[in-house]
Amino acid sequence: MTGKMDSNAAVHPQHPKRLVFAPGDIKGPEVDGDEPASSAVRMAASHLAEDITRSDTSTPTSAMQQELLSHPARAHQFTINPPLHVSHLHPTNPLHQFHKWFMDPRLPRSSAPETCTLATASLPSGRVSARMLYFKELDERGWVIYSNWGSKEGKGEQIFGSKYRASADGTMPGDMHDSAALNQGNRWAALTFFWSLVERQVRIEGIIEPLSREESEMYWRTRERHSQIGAWTSWQSKVLWSVNSEESLNNPDLEDGRSDLENRAKEIESRFAGVKDIPLPPFWGGIRVVPESVEFWQGRPGRLHDRFRYVREEAGHSAKTSTWRIERLSP
Ligand SMILES: Cc1cc2nc3c(=O)[nH]c(=O)nc-3n(C[C@H](O)[C@H](O)[C@H](O)COP(=O)(O)O)c2cc1C
């Protein structure tokens, strides 16, 4: 089958079916006097959309391509920031610079500025995965996030390695707070923040270290009881249920694994019914991303953004005692 597709592709080059095509599909602000141009692009894009509903591929005709290419795509522009100059940055410490941007009064707490993406990679494949998290603490060493590291299906195995295991039923008695647990994994990680309201991005790359059990305990105690039950309940990222997509899924009473999760939550609730302080699970806790580099990006018109990166030159015990080189990067 692959051979057939390849030979077809060579004769009739076709694009895979597009479900979103930026010109026309991603709405942008209308520019004054731009109406005829943007409607031509919209028309070409909608012809293309009609075309792809009829087939598995979207191959624009040359006329459509002409129409689309003769108008600039409506890409988002970054307009609100004045120039960012190195003199605006903290001279010696990227963590302090992060703190300054994080506390910007233009970033309301309701916009959840603590939301970030954590990217990690498997060894030896190099396969990368990323997920949103809430960052919870910033200290002199780095950024702290909390999660469940127990299952081999999730990021736990990437970071802690395939030999690390810890389970809610105690049959796999690891503890993520034991830093030796990290020896087999890939400790490199990246955290990215994007604050659209202020048109800023911060990118952190560094090495993961687990918090001490005492540090994780302190945060665990602040969590609401039902979140603590949830943490014990979930063997995070383990497959609860699956189906072959050819089976019929129309039946709204189809049991799809949710009830197993809820039954398990009930079991955990009764297990801790008389317990005032639910203990910290051995597979749940905080890790700190200790930065090797931190980039501060601020959007500017015409894609000529300002980018400054701190790169650790000499490792001290904390970011405060390390020395950092500051570089301006091409946008
Ligand atoms: C906005 C947002 C915040 C989240 N915060 C956390 C968090 O702080 N900790 C966490 O373990 N999962 C959090 N999640 C869920 C993760 O994205 C992810 O599903 C989970 O950590 C499992 O990831 P894994 O399969 O890579 O282990 C959050 C999801 C969203 C959308």
From TrEMBL:
Residues 1-38 are annotated as: Disordered. It holds the Pfam family PNP_phzG_C. Its EC number is 1.4.3.5. The keyword Hydrolase does not apply. It is an enzyme of class 1 (oxidoreductase). Its cofactor is FMN. Pathway: Cofactor metabolism; pyridoxal 5'-phosphate salvage; pyridoxal 5'-phosphate from pyridoxine 5'-phosphate: step 1/1; Cofactor metabolism; pyridoxal 5'-phosphate salvage; pyridoxal 5'-phosphate from pyridoxamine 5'-phosphate: step 1/1. Residues 284-331 form the Pyridoxine 5'-phosphate oxidase dimerisation C-terminal domain. Residues 112-235 form the Pyridoxamine 5'-phosphate oxidase N-terminal domain. One of its GO terms (biological process) is pyridoxine biosynthetic process. Gene3D superfamilies: Electron Transport, Fmn-binding Protein, Chain A. Keywords: Flavoprotein, FMN, Oxidoreductase. One of its GO terms (molecular function) is pyridoxamine phosphate oxidase activity. SUPFAM superfamilies: FMN-binding split barrel. This is pyridoxal 5'-phosphate synthase. It comes from Talaromyces islandicus (Penicillium islandicum).
